[in-house]
Structures are given as structure tokens and as C-alpha cells.
Amino acid sequence: MSVSPVFARDVELARQLYDAHPIFQDTTLKHRRFKHSDITPLLDQVANQGKMTVDVVGKSTEKRPIRRVQVGTGATPVLLWSQMHGDEATATMALFDIMNFLQASGDEWDEFRANLLAGLTIHMVPMLNPDGAQRWQRRTSLDIDMNRDALRLQSPESVILKKLQQTLKPLVGFNLHDQNPRYSVGHSDKQAVLSFLATAYDRDRNVNEVRQRSMQLIAGLNRVLQPLIPGQIARYDDEFEPRAFGDNIQKWGTTLILIESGGYKGDSEKMMIRRLNFVAILSALNSIANRAYEAENIADYAAIPENGRALFDVLIRNVGVVRNGVRTVMDVAINRYEENTNGARDFRYESKIEDLGDLSTFYGLEEIDATGLDLVPANVYPETLKSADQLAELNMPELQKQGTVVFKMRKASKAKAYEQLGSESIHVLMDGEFPAKPLKLGQIPTFLIKQGEQLQYVVVNGLVIKTDEQVLGKRFSIIE
Question: What's the rounded Cα separation, in Å, for the pair 120 and 153?
Fold first, then answer.
């Protein structure tokens, strides 16, 4: 089947934007867990450069100013907002990269910028829920999920978003989120790096001109992004949610594109997906400015696989587990969860055993074929430590090779003990249960995997360490 020259140019444009992104990437945003105070000087800098206007459109519950960036003089308004959920910051970083891109001049992108800014008036709210971002939590400081507050409007942040939609009357709105990194593309082993949704505006999921435009724009985005992340784009279920902003904004007459940033293996800070957001948003803006989306077929939107739930962080297959003297062969699924540290500016992992049994229809982002191997409890250091400081006196690499990764410690402040741990991958017991004795659902996954008496793997708090490797990282330490 032949590809139209226009479609081919769009794919090439996406590749060129992808290649250009490092030039425009904001270098101050290196980690996801930045705060309102971190983006304030960036917005001040944007305002001072003069090409864009920055104004305060309201304040959060805790009186943090919520600011909007406006650029362009075109007749078609578009509205983009990020961090409606405070712990979903991937697109926020991309919006600052896009601001850098639109501020620049004197390069090969001048004509592209000029066309965008002549056709569109772009409004960006990079952090809609600054109180949630401060705590690195989904909800506002009122503990309200503002994406379920489009009707009651109990959070001031919700009032701000509705007012912007009602007064600006944008043709297109971009609702920018992060999703669970364990979503799969359909029921496959492919991680959903990006997911899209043309939200429904009624329970029957009808398609009018407004929603059709969403589907066409997303069909185009899928087409141009597939060469960058082949087979790793999914589509959210479009069941109508009457309280949600996305569904209501579509109902209120603004075409709504939901972009969800999922996971990308080995990229916990989501810098790759930030780059893909940069490409996706600019590609969509270009399609709106030149009305290229009108040539897209909504059947191509429907053909995008839905998000699935087929992935675990770690899946150990066919391992022997002995309980009550009986050896059972089972699969062990592990998920790793982020726990805030350092005032929610950093995190550590706390993992748990998510499922046991026959998991042959599921996949792991990391998999171990343990056929013929056995899962046994980890070795415990024979002495009870007075504090984590004593760990520094021990030969950790040698103990790890022996499978000794559990240490008993006299009860102390967990926060203080984490500070003292350094970079060891260990399991400290103060008052918790000994792990894998016996193996149970919901347990912290610390254990050994052996072939006879030969140690093959050490697992500490969900981190899998091969016996011929030394892996150190404080985020995989656990204290219980």
C-alpha cells in the first residue's frame, strides 16, 4: 500500500523533532520530582524573553500561583495542561522543552515555528496541581482527585481549569498525564510507552465532529510515533466517566486528546518519554495548524490496541518452592513501588510479591527462567547489629556472594537507618518477619535462587542480582 507524500513528510518531521530534542531540552529539569519553586524561575525567564506572555490564572488551595504561558497569534486557540495529578510530571518537562523550542530562532526550524505561531494561539499550564507536586502525590492538598472534580469543582485548581476552557474556548485541549508503567499493549509483552484516548462525551460513546477530531489527531500521532517506539503505543478504554475533566471538556465542545506517559525500560526518570512527548505535542500542533488531521481515518484510531494488564516488574518462571516438605513449581511475580524520601524529592523502592502460581499468560519487564532451580530463604548475618554504621565494617560483596543479605538490627529510627545504609543492597530486620520463611503473597521479595547448593541469584527487595555481579544501590535496601 502506498503512503501519501503528506503522511511521509509527517513521519520524517517527527524523526527530525526527535533528533533535535536534545538541543532544546531544559537542562535544569533532570529529575521528575521537581516542585513549584523549581519551575518558578523558569517561567520568570520565559516571561523576560518577551516572545511569550506569562500570567497567573489563579492560586492553589495552599496559595501557590498557577501560571499560564501564551504564545502565538493565530485564530485557533489550543490549551495544554500538565500535572493535574501532582505526581505525573513527564509532560511538564516536555512543555518546558517546547517553550525553549518556540523561543528559539535563527535555525532550520524558523519556518516551522512561524507557521505554528501564525496559525495557533497556544496556552500552556505546566503545573496545574502544585500542592500535589509538592508532596509528589496524585491528589490536591484537599485530597481530591481533580480529574474527578469537573462537576462539583471543589478544588480551586478545578475551577481554574474549567474557567480556562470556558473563556478560551480552545479548539483542542491536551490533557497530559502519566500512567502505570506496567500497562502493556493489549495482552502482550510490550510495555505501553505512550497511551492515547479520545474521551467519550456520553455513555453511548457517540462520535460527533468534536470527538472525531480527537480520533483523527491520535491516529496521526500513532502513525508518526510508531517508527520511534514500534508496537509500544496503546489506547485507553473509552468508558464514559461523568466526573472527569477529559470527558466533560469533550462534552463542552473542545476536542480532547489524552496523552498518558507510561514506562520505558531502564528509564526511571522518564527522559525518553519526555522526548516522545516533545515530538507528539509539536506534531499534533502542526497537524492542527495546517488541518492535516482531516485526512486521517478514525478506523486507524480504533485499530490501536487497548491498554492491557499483562506485565509485572519481575517474573520468575518455574521455580521450585518447598513448603511443609513438598516441592511446588510456581511462578513468582514482583512489583516495585516508589516511596517518597527527602521531602518527596527522591524515592526508594519498596517491593512486594504480587502473585504466585501459574502466571504463564503474563510477562515480566525482567524475566528469569528458573526451571530446575529452587527458591530458598536468604542467609542471615549471625550477629545483631547495634546500628547501620556497623555495616560499613563488613565485607558486603563477599557476604552477598554467600547469599548473606539479611541483617538483624536493634530497633532504631528507620529514617536514620536509611541515611546510614549507604549504597548496600540489603534487607535489615528490626521487627519485621523473616522474608520467604515461608514465601507468601504481599511479602517483601528477599530470597535466594539456587541450583542444588550452587547460588544462582540473590533477590533483595525485588532487585535481582546474579551471583557473578555486584549491584549496589540504596534504593533497593529495605528496613522492616
Answer: 29
Distance CA 112, CA 91 (A): 21
Q: If 0-12 CB within 10 Å is exposed, 13-18 middle and 19+ buried, where does residue 400 land? A: buried
Sheet holding 172-178, edge to edge: 53-59, 65-71, 120-125, 76-82, 172-178, 255-261, 194-197, 233-235
CB atoms within 10 A of CB 274: 26
Alpha carbons 301 and 220: distance in angstroms, whole number = 8
Is residue 83 within 8 Å of residue 126, measured between CB atoms?
yes
CA distance 306 to 168: 32
| Separation between Cα atoms, residue 164 and residue 1, nearest integer Å | 43
Rounded CA-CA distance 318/367 in Å is 11
pTM more than 0.85: yes
Q: How many angstroms separate the CA atoms of 269 and 345, rounded?
A: 12
Q: Are 195 and 234 in contact (CB under 8 A)?
A: yes
pLDDT tens profile 38-59: 999 999 999 998 899 999 999 9
pLDDT at residue 192 in the model: 98
Q: What confidence tens digit (pLDDT) does each residue in 122-169 have?
A: 999 999 999 999 999 999 999 999 999 999 999 999 999 999 999 999
Instruction: Please name the residues in contact with 345: beta carbons below 8 A apart, sequence gap of 6 or more.
Output: 31, 33, 35
